[in-house]
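User: Some background: our group keeps a shared notebook of sequences we're curious about, and every so often someone picks one and asks for a predicted structure to add to the entry. Today it's my turn. The entry only has the sequence so far, pasted here. Could you supply the structure so I can complete it?
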Amino acid sequence: MLSIPLLISGIILAIIPGNDVGIVNALLTGVIVFSLLLLLAWAYQKLRGVEGLGGGDIWLLTGLAIYFGLTGIPYIFLLSALMGIIYFLIFVKDKSKPFAYGTFIAVAAIIWSVIGEDTIFNLLIFL
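Assistant: Of course. Here's the predicted structure to add to the notebook entry:
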């Protein structure tokens, strides 16, 4: 459970005054993201009989939700999904093998935090 320190440090950071994401936003976003992803993973497993979303992905996205709050986490979801889909379509030959999604979540969070939302929104205008 390497994502547990991410959760704890995100909550500690949210307590510090002047942070962009307050403690209420951080905790509420974390609970919402964790609950929705857990429900999605459970429903997929019930319908398909196989695991579709690993527990590590759920914890990682929950930790990032605490850091980025309700306004930032949807874009990390979208960016990581887009990168994962592109990679899957181009490089994965055997569609029946498990697919590691956590790498794309981490890269999307790094891109979002380094480049910033303003730059990404300006780039999206040209698409």
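Suggested note for the entry: The longest helix spans residues 55-91. The helical segments are 4-15, 23-48, 55-91, 102-115, 117-125.
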